[in-house]
Structure formats: structure tokens, C-alpha cells
Give the backbone structure.
Amino acid sequence: MSAMETVASPAISVQEQPGRNALSEPAMIRWLLTGVALLFLGFFLFLPLLAVFGQALEKGFSAYLAAIREPDCRAAIRLTLLVAAISVPLNLVFGVAAGWAVTKFRFPGKNLLVTLIDLPFSVSPIISGLIYVLVFGLQGWLGPWLYEHDIKIIFAVPGIILATIFVTFPFVARELIALMQAQGSDEEEAAMVLGANGFQIFWRVTFPNIRWGIIYGVILCNARAMGEFGAVSVVSGHIRGMTNTIPLHVEILYNEYNFAAAFAVASLLALLALATLAVKSLVEWKMRSPRPVRKPAQCAST
Amino acid sequence: MVSKRIFRIAAVLILIVSYAMPAFGGEVVTLLNVSYDPTRELYADFNKSFADYWQKKTGQKVEVRQSHGGSGKQARAVIDGLEADVVTLALAHDIDEIQARGLINPEWQKRLPHNSSPYTSTIIFLVRKGNPKQIRDWDDLVKSGITVVTPNPKTSGGARWNYLAAWAYALELPGGNEQSAREFVKKLYKNVPVLDSGARGSTTTFVLRGIGDVLLSWENEALLAVRELGPDKVEIVYPPASILAEPPVSLVDKVVEKHGTRVIGEAYLQYLYSSEGQRIAAKNYYRPIDETIAGSMTKFPEIKLFKVDEVFGSWQAAQKTHFADGGTFDQIYGK
């Protein structure tokens, strides 16, 4: 396609001289397409978002605050923060390790590993939850042993964290693999030739290059970790005030005909999404802006 | 510079984690009651009352935690290791399933009065305001053009009562037999567009999403929906006959032994039979078994109630014929 364009372009540019913009559509079509896209966004994204906040504040701001301060809700917020605080750093480590391994080394089974990293994206969340029930459930492989030793995995916080780690695993790794593959390993090789050890190479050469990629991955990972419903629902056991995360708490409130409160709590998740978007745009902007060139000096000093 | 930033991030993380850690309070006993969908409000009331009663009686603080969902799904969770001290489910079979895995004493149903069912209920119809489709009795449900909302009998206890109520109605018709009942129920499920996994899901499907002409519902669930969502939207229709639903309760023996909560768990279940417990049940639209309290309440109309044991022999038999894999429900709904 692009090859054809480059071949054809000299001939066309002569013909289209007066119109100036050979690759553009007529103004009407452009407006129409943009309008359709905006309308679509408005109906499917903006309106529901407004509805969430509208419903949340339906009974006034004090009812909104009361819904968020209610003990079960506070417990849900605490649990969600705890789950994110544990699963995101772990996935950061896994993600960097996976990215490093896949892009800097050659080893048999590498393609399989890359495919496996994508697995959580392609598997339905209910399966992601059920695998843990099958492994750690009382009727599962490890369940009876865990029960005897009084170790709770599923229907408790560890299970929720495991399921969250599983579904959020690809976010950091995928981001980094693409980025590190694009960058190649020339700089690392140069550092090695100059006598840097493994840790120095990572810390002084690789890390500064992938820093924004890491942050980008972490933001997405965090948003999903806090918002995950399906897998967590399977392993949670739905014990109020103990194993309900924010999304599960929203469902409970909704099922209890407590709509204002349900939407109030849902608006927390919506706010999280908006904050995520804002930080994400900032990071994208940072990633695009040129990096200061000071690497040669740093490398020499090591 | 980088290490300073990492230090700062770590400090923030530690703050978050320490906030997330549950506060350690005084000696509070916790019980977990794993229950089915429509009992949310009942046990929210009852747990408060029990905590007061127990503290007055023994000085011990107790906190009862709740988990709700479709009855079958909840039983499954207990089987998979959800450590419920007590289960309060929609039907005996779900507790039998837990018992079959060795978690509950085989004699569980004889441990408490009235087959371990401290309250009863029945299945009735919820229709749109003004009953536009003129639904009065079970045979109105199989007419063409009527859409019926009921949950999935595979996961919901209430749905199994719905199914058995329809079956019992067809059997009791003049000339009714197994074959005609089967045809009747088959026709009924032809009119069902969605099967939710639990009773509460069906209620929200019917009332909030506006799907269907009639919801087959627990009596308590329907009364609660009318109270919560407004009598201007939906109304209740009592069919002339329905089924007597007896939702049972039990201790989970293996769990209370592990937690050391047998005594308090027993007291909790006994309290359901006390006059206070019965009053709370009635207030939440469950039919109390205590005649004196049932008599003082007028909101439960007398209708003919079939008993599972009389129509189907027993729950075990009904379960095996109708809801087991490849049973009558699968045959009817699959084709």
C-alpha cells in the first residue's frame, strides 16, 4: 500500500497541483466523519459518564459522602488500594524482567514466552478466576492441604491479589517489549564492551530509556487492577467488609436497590479512570519529547 | 537522585499499605453467614439484633459477616472453601450438597425445629402496574405473547421453587399427569427470554430493565421490590395456588470446629426461632413459623400451598429428576 503510494505520488502531484491536498477527502466528508465519531463518543462514553455522576449526586452531596464513608465501602476502598499496592509493583518487576529477557537475550521458547505473556488478555476473566478455585479450592489440588494448615488463598485477600496479578500481568510487559525491541540492544552492547556489569547496564543504560514506558504500563496496570470485576468476583466469596473490592461493592449496592450509593461508589472508579487518562496523556507527551543527550558522558564515567 | 525518588515512592506505598491494613480492635468474634440472594435485608436487620442480644447475654461482642448470591452458587463457594460458620440457603438440597462433601453433619436437618426452616415463603407473580396482560394464574404464563422472567434453576434456589410450583400446579389440574406437567413447564420456559443466575438479578431485570410481563418471584422479594421501587411501577398477583418454600439453615460443622464458633453459631440459628427473630423475619416479608407472630401479621394472604414432599416425594428426588445434569429441566430448556 505505502509502496504503491510512493511510486504513484510523482505522477499525481503534477495533476493535483491546484487542489494542493492530494491525500485528503473533500471537506464535507471530513466533517461528516468527525461528526459521526464525536456523536458516537458522546453517546457511548460521555453520556454514561455524565449519568454516573448525575445519579451519584441525585440525593445530594451529603448522601454521596455518606455512601463513600460507610464502613463496608471504606473496607472496599481499602481492599482495592491494598490489592493495587501489591499487584502493581509485582507486575512491574515481572514486566521488566520479562521485557529484559525477551528483548536482550536469545533462548529457545522465546516466542512461546511472548505468547504466554499475552494469555491473560485473551482468556475470559471468569476463567482467570476459576483456575485459582481449581488449584486452591477445597476440592482442588492444594485446597485440602491449605485448609489443614489454615492458609486461606481463595475467598480471601491472597486469592483476590493472585487473580488481579494474573489479569494485569501483560500491561507492563507488553509495553516494555515493544519499546525495548524498537530500541534494540546496541547501547547495552556498547556499555558491556566498556566494562559495565549487568546491574550497571540496566540501571544506567536500559532504565533511563524505558522509564516512561514503565510508567505508562504501570498506570494502565493500576487502572485495571482497581477496576477488575470478573476474575475477582469468582475468587472473592463476596464477604461484606472483607473481600469486596470497589467494583464488587458497586454491584452489591445496585442489587440492594441502593442506586445513589451504587453510583456514588462507581463515580470513584470513574474518577480513577479520568485521572488515569490525564496521567497517561502526560506520559505520552513526555515520551514523545526528546530526551536530553548525556548518555556518552555517563557511560564514560562508569 | 533516582534513589531518593524510589525512597519517596516506597514511603507512599508503605502509607497506602498501612492504611489498607485492617485495624486491630478488641476481642470480637466474627461469624460468616453465607446466604442466598433475597435475604440481604433480613440478615442486615437480624444480625444487629443478634449482636445486641448476645452482648447482653454473654458480654461478648459479635460481628456477623454476610455473603449473598444465588443459592447454588453460594453452596458451591462453601464447598470450594468459603469458610461459612452458618449457611442459610434457599433449599435443603444446596445444604445437602455441602453435607455430601463432609462439611456438615448428615443429620443436619433434624437439629433444629421445623426441618431447620425458621421461616417459610412462597412463589408469587410480580406484574406491571395495572396488570395489563391480565395475569391471574399459572396457566396465564404459558399463553403466547407473554414473557416470563425467572432465574436459572441450575444456580438459583428460588428458580427451582418457581419451576416446581409450575410443575405442581400442572399436576394438580384435572387430568394432570407427568406428561402434561412436562408439556406445561416446557411451554412456560419457552416464554422465558433471560435466565439470570440469582433471584435478585431477575428482579432487577424485570423492574429496572423493564424486561418481561411477569416475574416469578419469592413472596418476600416481590414485597420488598414493591416497597423499594414504588407501587406505581409494579404490583403483586397471588395465584390461587403455589408452593410452600422452606429455606433451611445449618451450622457448617467442619468450619465451626476450626473457628471454635459452634456455641455462638448455634445460638445464632436458635435466635432465628425466638419471637424477636420471627418478628424480624415477618417484617422482612418472610412467613414466620411461629403462629402467634404469623397471626398478628395480616399481610400474608392465605393461598393453597403445595408441599414438595407431598408432590415430589422429597427434595432429593425432585432434584435428581428435574435439576441434575440431563434432568427434566435440561431436556426441556435445551430443545
User: Anything to note?
Assistant: Chain A has a mean pLDDT of 83. Chain A touches chain B at residues 75, 78-79, 81-82, 85-86, 89, 133, 136-140, 143, 146-147, 150, 152, 154-155, 237-242, 252, 254-257 (CB under 8 Å). The first helix of chain A runs from residue 2 to 15.
